[in-house]
Every structure is written in structure tokens, then in C-alpha cells.
């Protein structure tokens, strides 16, 4: 079975057929999904999906695009949402210097604060890091992410950066970008990272893998990521499926 460790089924692009898509998972070898959160406004819709589908779990957190107006009251609300038994991580949280939709100093403030919340709650984190590697790593180091661990979503850093992330006990996630024809760095990193520290994801509806790039993504395409990873590692697809399934369960504390 496959575990899609990062998806967004509350996204507008699934509003007309989310039930049809999720109902097809079992027959397509997808056993578990973690639906990640971008803003607290999304949480009720995410919880409704989790309640309807036992195999869907959640993370709760505020994406760097959404942090401009945050207050400490939002951190209290985040902690309250995290009490839901379906919530298995704080995220996705981090820094995004590609779009800069929120001022960088504000991104850094609330990223650090949410890592502290995760430590307070003893929950792993789901990290979003886009073109902000140094600041992201500095904050995670300073705020002792090693105490809770978690996963680097859609990893785009170097092998050298991965070494420290692995030293923190964290997992590294590979998704559709691993399959792209000009994808060099993700392949290099995938060769380096030990199998017991890899999880796979789709980031649905984004980052659709080859050969469906350009279409809306869903967990039904995650097998393409597993197949590419198997080719990179020189092992069977079944080994990739089994390892990444168990790794994600361990990362998120799912029995």
C-alpha cells in the first residue's frame, strides 16, 4: 500500500469530485493520506474530510503565504485544533521567499512560533521551504526541531543540507518533481537519503508527476513517484511502497 504524506483535498479544485476521488483510493493501492493545512480557515473542511474517510489524517498549521495578519490568539486556536485525534502534525509551516506573499520578517516570526508550538505539543512538523534554505535551517536549529522531528515537504535542498536534516531525525519527502525530465538535484538527494528516512507525497492538486504533468494532481498518481524512486534507488517498487508507508506511519505516529 501507498501513503501519500502530503495532499490538499480541501482545495477548490476538488470541490466537485472530492468524494469520487477519495472513494477510489483503496482499489488503487493508496492506504493512507495526510491532508495538510495552509490556514486555520481551512481546518473545518479538512476535519470534515477526515471524519468521512478513516484513512485520511491531517496536519494543522499556517503556511508562510498566510501569516501576515496572525496574532497570538491564532496560536491558541491552533493548539485547540491540534487536540483532534486525526491531527498528526503541525504544518505546513515554513518560509517562502519565491512568492514573498508575506514579509520575510513576519514569515520568520510565525514560523519560529509554530515550531515552538509543535515542541510544546510534542508533535512533528511539516516544513515548507522554498528558496529560503539558510533562514529555514537557522530557525529549525535554533528552535530545536530535533526534539519533535517531522518531514521536509517537497524537498528542494542540497545533499549537504539533507545531512543535517537527517541528523535531526527528520524525514525527507519526494513528490512529482522527482519525475520531471530536468530534475537533477532531487534525484541526487534521493540517491543519498537512506530508505528508512524517505516518505513520498503528491501535494495534490499541485506538482503532478510525469506523464500527467499539467493536469490536476491526486493521490491516484503517487505510484509514479514510487516507481521513479525505485528506479533511482535500484530496488523494487514494492520495497519503496512498503518502506515509505511504514516511514510515514512512524513519522506521524499512526498505529
Automatic annotation (TrEMBL):
A divalent metal cation 1 binds at residues 6, 8, 92, 203. SUPFAM superfamilies: Metallo-dependent hydrolases. The lineage of its organism: Bacteria, Bacillati, Bacillota, Clostridia, Eubacteriales. Signal peptide: none annotated. The keyword Metal-binding applies. GO terms for molecular function: DNA nuclease activity; hydrolase activity, acting on ester bonds; metal ion binding. NCBIfam families: YchF/TatD family DNA exonuclease. PANTHER family: D-AMINOACYL-TRNA DEACYLASE (PTHR46124:SF2). Keywords: Hydrolase, Metal-binding. A divalent metal cation 2 binds at residues 128, 153. PROSITE patterns: TATD_3 (PS01091). This is TatD family hydrolase.
Amino acid at each position: 500500500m501507498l501513503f501519500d504524506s502530503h495532499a490538499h483535498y480541501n482545495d477548490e479544485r476538488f470541490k466537485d469530485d472530492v468524494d469520487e476521488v477519495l472513494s477510489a483510493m483503496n482499489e488503487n493501492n493508496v492506504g493512507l493520506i495526510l491532508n495538510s493545512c495552509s490556514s486555520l480557515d481551512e481546518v473545518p473542511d479538512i476535519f470534515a474530510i477526515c471524519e468521512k474517510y478513516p484513512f485520511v489524517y491531517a496536519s494543522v498549521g499556517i503556511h508562510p503565504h498566510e501569516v501576515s495578519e496572525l496574532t497570538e490568539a491564532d496560536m491558541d486556536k491552533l493548539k485547540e485544533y491540534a487536540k483532534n485525534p486525526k491531527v498528526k502534525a503541525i504544518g505546513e509551516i515554513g518560509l517562502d521567499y519565491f512568492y514573498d506573499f508575506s514579509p520575510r520578517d513576519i514569515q520568520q516570526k510565525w514560523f519560529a512560533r509554530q515550531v515552538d508550538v509543535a515542541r510544546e505539543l510534542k508533535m512533528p512538523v511539516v516544513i515548507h521551504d522554498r528558496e529560503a534554505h539558510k533562514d529555514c535551517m537557522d530557525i529549525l536549529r535554533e528552535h530545536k526541531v530535533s526534539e519533535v522531528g517531522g518531514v521536509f515537504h517537497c524537498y528542494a535542498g542540497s545533499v549537504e543540507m539533507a545531512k543535517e536534516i537527517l541528523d535531526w531525525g527528520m524525514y525527507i519527502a519526494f513528490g512529482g518533481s522527482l519525475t520531471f525530465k530536468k530534475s537533477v538535484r532531487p534525484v541526487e538527494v534521493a540517491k543519498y537519503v537512506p530508505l528508512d528516512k524517505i516518505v513520498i507525497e503528491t501535494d495534490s492538486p499541485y506538482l503532478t508527476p510525469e506523464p500527467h504533468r499539467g493536469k490536476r494532481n491526486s493521490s491516484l498518481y503517487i505510484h509514479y513517484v514510487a516507481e521513479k524512486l525505485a528506479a533511482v534507488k535500484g530496488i523494487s517498487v514494492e520495497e519503496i511502497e512498503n518502506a515509505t508507508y511504514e516511514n510515514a506511519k512512524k513519522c506521524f505516529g499512526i498505529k
